[in-house]
Amino acid sequence: EKSPYSDWTSALSAGVGIGIMYTLIIHGGVISAAFDEIPSGDFFSDSCPELSLYWTSALNALLFQILHLSLSVLCFDTVRRSGAADAPKIPIGNCNFLVILMLHLVASFSTTINTVSCVGGLAALGGTVAISLLLARSVINQPDYLT
Q1: pTM
Q2: Buried b / exposed e across 97-129, counting CB within 10 Å, b at 16+?
Q3: Is 64:19 a contact under the CB 8 Å cutoff?
Q4: Over the stretch 116-143, which tens digit does the pLDDT of each residue have?
Q5: From CA 145, how far away is CA 147, in angstroms rounded?
């Protein structure tokens, strides 16, 4: 009997859930802290006079939402393939888990660049998200991908 669940729907559900929680924790915390401390309702840091803290936080949350969606696609596919009978029995799933971990670490590290330049940090995060999207697209376009 065929399962009603597929890699696509499972990855989409997990990615959206993880991304929403990230957004609520990170962006929601920025908004509530800013309202408590800044009566004018706007805040610019010394390292980022171009964008307010709200914009920087919102763009980071959006990019991480997209990152979590694409990494979920990669992760669900890697888990399914590593459990297949004909899959090579490598503990880390043909290094795919390492790629997923490294992409997330690079994305997380890119947010530390915001202390120097928010534009540079957002560009680094955007580049990491673009790479993850390209990898997710290559996985989805495989003929044996479970949609």
Answers
A1: 0.79
A2: bebbeebbeebeebbebbeeebeebbebbbebb
A3: yes
A4: 888 888 899 999 999 999 999 988 888 7
A5: 6
